[in-house]
Amino acid sequence: MTSKNVWSWAIVFFLLIAIITLALWLRVALPYSQVFARDWVKMTGVDAYYYMRLVDNLMRHFPQLTQFDPYLLYPGGTLTGIQPDFFAYFMGGIVWLFTLGNASQHAVDVISVYIPPALAVITVLAAFFIGMLLGGRWPGLLSAGLLAVMPGEFLNRSLLGYTDHHIAEVMFSTCSMLFAFLALRAGYAKSLREIAQAGWNGIGKMLTFSILAGIFMGLYMLTWAGALLFALVIFVFIVVQAVIDHLRGRPTGYLGLLGVCIFGVGLAMYLPWVKNTMVVVALVAALLVSVLLPLLSVWMNSRGLRPMYYPIALTALAALGAVGLAVISPSVFRQMAGALANMFIWPLGTTVMEMQPLLIQQGNFTFAVALGNYM
Q1: For the chain, where are the alpha helices, taking DSSP H only?
Q2: Angle at the Cα of 13 from the Cα atoms of 22 and 211, rounded to 5 degrees
Q3: CB atoms within 10 A of CB 135
Q4: Can you give the pTM of this predicted structure?
Q5: CA–CA separation, 227 vs 170, rounded Å?
Q6: Residue 79 bridge partners (DSSP)
Q7: Cα(364)–Cα(362) distance, rounded to whole angstroms?
């Protein structure tokens, strides 16, 4: 490495440290006085108290999480575990490690409120590495810098004391994307035989990064009930890229391996904890399609069939699979069709605060909402 490259990397390193420092200042220093008030430790979000109740209970019965929350649904309370509750275990595990299993109530509160800003820093670092993979060091710094200061829900959900699962879901999904990119770089446009023959630089990196992407996908799905949407994005990419590769005469084996690892590991992690039938069916379908994509490509090439038949065959198989699901389990089919439809026809009356426009308030253009994120 030349002295010029050393200085270039040194500048990148110090700029990245400055970005992380700025990200922490916005998330820790600014709201600090609102969180730590004399002997009180206050949360900065309503939903944050739900997870703190779970964590408080968990620290007294570790590792057993309470199965009932009397305060969640007025007036009779409700069962926990209906939605993924991994974030409670995540925070409780961190507190348990820092206190060696002997945490006071004050220690639980103090450690927990710092978790959202810490996860934001990890997300910023993941954004840096994604940008560096796609465009180099300077695009990586730009990605990290924009994410660190960007107003909106990412900033709000990562403030000191906002002990809700949203920042964790962003961190897990971003890390899953990072490792998926690393896996793709190791195996892009290669057959399984070529990947295996490349040793560590091929099968070693491809498997390692793909499994890590699957682990973070699994953690994401255990954190948020809507995580299937991100899995759908990855699934669509794999299918579209497989079609493009086949039409251009490139192998698709690397995509099959990536899909099997991501959806297979994600499914293996999801099943023991949460058993949402629609999610399980969707993951199984994604896993089977990941196996089918390279097999169909190899079979069609061996038969000398025209490349254009590949997307036609996939479309026909998808239609056949949808009909089969509708016959075998009409309820699951309707649930999946409704979930897909709601992505495009979300009723305005059910729109949550997180989806409100950042620069529009009550129909008027304004910077007040964005600026309010820093006050």
Answers
A1: 3-24, 32-35, 46-60, 86-99, 105-135, 137-149, 153-157, 166-187, 192-197, 203-221, 228-247, 253-270, 277-303, 309-328, 330-342, 368-372
A2: 95
A3: 12
A4: 0.90
A5: 10
A6: 68
A7: 6
CB 195 within 8 A of CB 187: yes
**Whole-angstrom distance, CA of residue 197 vs CA of residue 191:** 10
Conformation bin of residue 318: beta by default, left when phi > 0, alpha when psi is -120 to 50: alpha
| CA dihedral over 79, 84, 87, 90, signed as positive or negative | positive
- What token pair was written down for 319? 């239609």
Note every long-range contact of 36-42, with CB atoms under 8 Å and residues 24 or more positions apart, other chains counting: 41/106, 41/109, 41/110, 41/113, 41/161, 42/161
The whole-angstrom separation of Cα 229 and Cα 343 is 9
pLDDT in tens, 308-365: 999 999 999 999 999 998 999 888 888 888 877 776 666 655 555 666 677 777 677 7
| Amino acid making up residue 254 | Y
Instruction: Give backbone dihedrals phi and psi of 230, rounded to 5 degrees, phi first.
Output: -70, -35
The SS3 call for residue 365 is strand
Q: How far apart are CA 180 and CA 206, in angstroms?
A: 9
Among residues 163, 189, 174, the alpha carbon closest in space to that of 233 is found at 174
What separation in angstroms does the CA of 328 have from each of 62, 277, 290, 292, 332? 41, 13, 22, 21, 9
**Assigned token pair, 214:** 């699957």
The model's pLDDT over 156-169, given as tens digits with 9 standing for 90+, comes to 999 999 999 999 99
144 touches 226 (CB < 8 A):
no
